[in-house]
Amino acid sequence: MASSRNYRFTFSQWLDALWNGDWGNAETFVADDVIVNGSSMAGHAYYIQKLKDDNFETARLDLCIVDNERAELAARFVFPRSPEPLDEDKEWTAQTFFSLANDDKISAVQALAGANKSAGRESNGQINQETALPKRLTSLDLRKFYADYIDSINTGHFARRFRRYRGLIESSFEEILGLRFTIERLIVNEQTQQGAARLAFIGEPTKNFRGIAPTGNPVSFGEHAF
């Protein structure tokens, strides 16, 4: 199995091909039967064409987390212009999870995109001491740390540990009755002490939420958190 450095290097080569418009070369980094957002694409050429149509060559890599134990990567890209006509002058963020097969080709992709609200570091460049890790953790401990964090939200104990996000989390529970989060996928890097998660959450909206009017029925959503 390749090291995390090799995974990152392979990923960087693929991005270079995309950014240079070398679409044919970019196809060679993608498996023939690549799965994109849970659906099998009609070959790697179709997926590369989709990236081309989305003007991927204009994207900037904002953050990349490599999970060397599971051959997975999480990447956050920032596009200078939104594909949506109403927001075409606004930046656009795509948060994407990649899985690599044994031959180091991209075999699965999960992507979520939206208006740019989260990309970039803290303006002061300082670590948030309130959520900082207590010590350097192993990859196993990182997974437990994040699982405990999500559990603290579901059980209502988050205010004791994460005061900074108390208002945001409490308002979410007011807007969505019975709100509950589950971790569908978690990518961690022991060396950088970073993680990225695909979260699923379910609940009953009490007001218009992401374009869905409250109907009295529960709905489910997905989020990518870095």
List keywords for this structure.
three-stranded antiparallel β-sheet; 34% strand; alpha+beta; Nuclear Transport Factor 2, Chain: A; 226 residues
Give the secondary structure arrangement, pairings included.
Layout: H1 4-19, H2 23-27, E1 30-36, E2 39-40, H3 44-53, E3 60-67, E4 72-79, E5 92-100, E6 106-115, H4 139-154, H5 158-161, H6 166-175, E7 176-189, E8 194-205, E9 219-225
Parallel strand pairs: 1-6
Antiparallel strand pairs: 1-2, 3-4, 4-5, 5-6, 7-8, 8-9
Q: What does this 3D model show about the protein?
A:
The protein has 6 helices and 9 strands. Strands 2-1-6-5-4-3 form a 6-stranded mixed sheet, covered by helices on one side. It has 2 domains: 112 residues, Nuclear Transport Factor 2, Chain: A (Roll), CATH 3.10.450; 87 residues, Roll (Nuclear Transport Factor 2, Chain: A), CATH 3.10.450. It is an alpha+beta fold and 226 residues long. InterPro entries: Cyclase_SnoaL-like, NTF2-like_dom_sf. It holds the Pfam family SnoaL. One of its GO terms (biological process) is polyketide metabolic process.
CATH class of the largest domain: Alpha Beta
Low-confidence stretches: 118-129
The oligomeric state of the chains shown is single chain
Percent range for helical residues? 25-40%
Instruction: State the CATH topology of the largest domain.
Output: Nuclear Transport Factor 2, Chain: A
Number of helices: 6
- Summed over residues and divided by their number, the pLDDT gives a mean of 84
Task: Give the termini separation.
Answer: 25 Å
Would you report the number of β strands? Answer: 9
Q: Return the string of H and E elements.
A: HHEEHEEEEHHHEEE
The global form is globular
> C-alpha Rg, in Å?
19 Å
Strands in their spatial order, largest beta sheet: 2-1-6-5-4-3
SSE class: alpha+beta
The number of domains: 2
Largest sheet: 6 strands, mixed
- Percent range for β-strand residues: 25-35%
Return the CATH architecture of the largest domain: Roll
Pfam families: SnoaL
